[in-house]
Structures are given as structure tokens and as C-alpha cells.
Amino acid sequence: MPRFWLLKCEPDVYSIDDLARDGRTGWDGVRNYQVRNFMRDEMQPGDLGVFYHSNATPSGAAGILRIERTGVPDPTQFDPKSEYHDPASRRDQPTWLMCEVSFVERFDAVIALETLRARPELADMLILRRGNRLSITPLEPREFEAIRALGRTGPSGGSAGKAASNGAMNGAMNGATKGVTRSKGKASTTATSDAGRARTAKGAARAGAVRRGAR
Q: For the chain, what are the domain ranges?
């Protein structure tokens, strides 16, 4: 059985639109041990996730992604030019890992945090708990389905979100990951659970990096 996740990133660093364009990317820049352990020990290829725009107007659920690979060494830890460089990490025994994700679906509109808070079926969701700033958190199946339903119908039952075409889906599943240039796993500017707050310029060449919000 697949598991379900919520992955945060600031959209000015990497957004659902970027993932829809790229098809597939690496979720790099995670510098929190609990989040790293989720990706290493619990996340599996085939799991589905909610792509959450953090530190945005509005912040909220923007679409659906699929986990393609897990436990992949994060290349930014070995790059002296990266803000995520970790000189203590060794290539034969890397400290930091990432997952690779592919695009599945973009909602017509972001499902705002306030809307998520108002749904009783989402009351126990980890992202809504005070003090939780993890960039990746597990979702219960009912929570994932409730968010996906909101994305497809809108909070007031409006138009459905758009699923990727078969061609885009195939590209998302089979496309090669690009080199990493922008981190996605880092904490948002209001969070402290993932290390570092400086953001890579959005104009930098993209290689398939993970976004920054408490992702």
C-alpha cells in the first residue's frame, strides 16, 4: 500500500508550475534529521504527496506529486559553492539524502491553509499542529484524499483541478532528474527545523532542486 506525504516549498524557489514544466526533480536541501529519516526509512517509490506552497499568498496545497526514488544522496552537501554544503559529510557515507518526485496534478487554485484548518477531517493533520515546522510530514490516507478532493472541486465545489495528460504523466515518471541548483528541503524563513535561511536566487539555472519552504 502506498503512503502519503505533504512536502513544503516556497513557490518563489520552486513551485508546482516548475514541477509541471520539469516533469521530475530532486527534493534536495533537507537539513533536518527527522525529515531525512522519513525519506530514508519510510518513504517508498509510488507513494503520493501533496505539494504545499509555504510562505506564499496564500500558503496552501497546490497539487499532487509522486515519489519516484528515495534515499538518494543529496549532491548539495558536497558542493562548496552551495549554501547546503556540509564539509563533514563523506561521499562514501553521506549524511544528507533526498527523494526524487514527479508531477501528477496541479490544482486550479491553491487550497489555502485557512481552508484546510476549517475542514474537520483534517483536524489532526501534522502541518496544522502548533510548532510543527517539518518540511515533509506523513499524511493519513483520508487526509490525502480530502485534500485531493478539495483541489479537484475547489473549497466551494467549483471546477475541478487539472490532471496531467497521459504524455505528461509518462514524462513525469520516466524523465531524468536534472542537476540540482536550488534547494527545496530547507525550512521557510519562519521555521527553524531545516538548516539555513538564505535562498538561492530564482534566476539561477535549475537542475531539479528541492524547494525551500519548510520543505
A: 4-174
